[in-house]
Design a protein that fits this description.
This protein is of the alpha/beta class. The chain contains 14 helices and 12 strands. The strands form 2 sheets. A 7-stranded mixed β-sheet has the order 1-7-6-5-4-2-3, sandwiched between helices. The protein has 2 domains: about 240 residues, Aspartate Aminotransferase, domain 2, CATH 3.40.640.10; about 130 residues, Aspartate Aminotransferase, domain 1. The longest helix has 20 residues. Helix 4 links the parallel strand 2 and strand 3.
């Protein structure tokens, strides 16, 4: 009997290989660095050392794989650790095409690490299939994209991107952090790899940092696990526990957050101090129909341009329910200033092209009452 998404959030997948000896309803935290051996080459449990594997992390990896419809999920100490491990698949002379609208830390990774390793990076508007196709070269090994993008909420056709990548012998990797498995499953649309910053919606409480790579290819999963073990950026037992706890409420959290986001976006879209609202749940959004064709929802991330930088800065200091902070996806609503926070490492020329300027705010809508959130953002805009 196949399990619905909400059931998988609570119970994981049917073929879990782990059971607690004491039948604990909440899977325990195995807070240990190492495991004893019965004899040389055999420890009896399948676990040797927590950097390599740990029962709590394995149980959480199974939970993530279950909701992402993946055969494998690999847990990392952060979303950037997961992204870094993915890019470690490539070396000198290899080439990767990336969405030009990306979390700023990925640009920093490319500048400080990928370029040093000899990996060529081309940034393209992946929401334009023709531009994506033109960016792929004979030496291209992968296409890496976000959809919706961070922070401008552009939508890329995952099926088409998979076709283009695979026709050139390249992998397609999709960062699915913004919509989460509740609303989008890129592996079912042709992607080879899905990446999550699990600090965000998967955990959902702004209390832990974690990352995951999800995939179906056994050989590639083995290679990534070896890289994770070697580089040492493994998810700790306690943080694994927090992620799994968060996944249990993922479905209900995201549905309510999306309701709040749509109500807020509609109000912002008509406010005189707001020039434009970037939210795929608005019918006027350029990617609205495309997102409907490949996702079951729009999530709860909104970006907007205010009329002036002064208005934007005023909002940051006048909000009372929203918290002026980086990150996203938690129970509390947050407002972020991408220009100097999340996207400070984006090259200036690209910031100008994308519209990442002093008027841009990014909002992560939480679980508060929607009327309270609307009143708070309205008073903050109007000063």
């Amino acid at each position: 009997m196949s399990r619905a998404f909400e059931t998988r959030c609570i119970h994981g997948r049917e073929d879990s290989r782990l059971n607690d000896a004491f039948r604990a309803v909440s899977f325990p935290i195995y807070q240990t660095a190492t495991f004893s051996h019965i004899e040389t080459g055999h420890n009896g449990s399948g676990f040797d050392y927590t950097r390599e594997s740990n029962p709590t992390r394995t149980h959480t990896e199974e939970a993530v794989a279950a909701v992402e419809s993946a055969r494998h999920a690999i847990g990392f100490s952060s979303g950037m650790a997961a992204i870094s491990c993915f890019f470690e698949l490539f070396g000198r002379g290899d080439h990767v095409v990336c969405s030009e609208d990306l979390y700023g830390g990925v640009f920093r990774l490319h500048r400080l690490v990928s370029e040093k390793n000899g990996v060529g990076i081309t940034y393209a508007d992946t929401s334009d299939p023709d531009e994506l196709a033109a960016a792929i070269r004979p030496e291209t090994k992968a296409v890496y994209l976000e959809t919706p993008t961070n922070p401008m909420m552009h939508i890329t056709d995952i099926r088409r991107a998979a076709e283009l990548a695979h026709s050139r012998g390249a992998l397609l990797a999709v960062d699915n952090t913004f919509l989460s498995p509740r609303f989008q499953n890129p592996l079912l649309l042709g992607a080879d790899i899905v990446i999550h910053s699990a600090s965000k919606f998967l955990s959902g409480h702004n209390d832990t940092v974690a990352g995951f790579i999800c995939l179906n290819d056994d050989r590639l999963a083995e290679e990534l696990r070896l890289l994770a073990k070697t580089t040492g950026a493994s998810l700790s037992p306690f943080d694994s526990f927090l992620v799994e706890r968060g996944i249990k409420t993922l479905a209900v959290r995201m549905e309510r957050q999306q309701e709040n986001a749509l109500a807020l976006a509609e109000v912002l879209n008509g406010h005189p101090r707001v020039r434009d609202v970037c939210y795929a749940g608005l019918a006027a959004h350029k990617g609205y129909e495309l997102n409907l064709s490949q996702a079951s929802g729009f999530g709860s991330m909104i970006s907007l341009h205010t009329d002036t930088p002064e208005t934007a800065l005023g909002v940051l200091h006048r909000v009372r329910l929203f918290t002026f902070a980086e990150s996203l996806g938690g129970t509390e609503s947050l407002v972020t200033y991408p220009l100097v926070q999340t996207h400070s490492d984006v090259p200036q020329q690209l910031k100008d092209k994308l519209g990442i300027d002093g008027t841009l705010l990014r909002i992560s809508v939480g679980l508060e009452n929607s009327d309270d959130l609307i009143r708070d953002i309205t008073q903050a805009l109007e000063g």
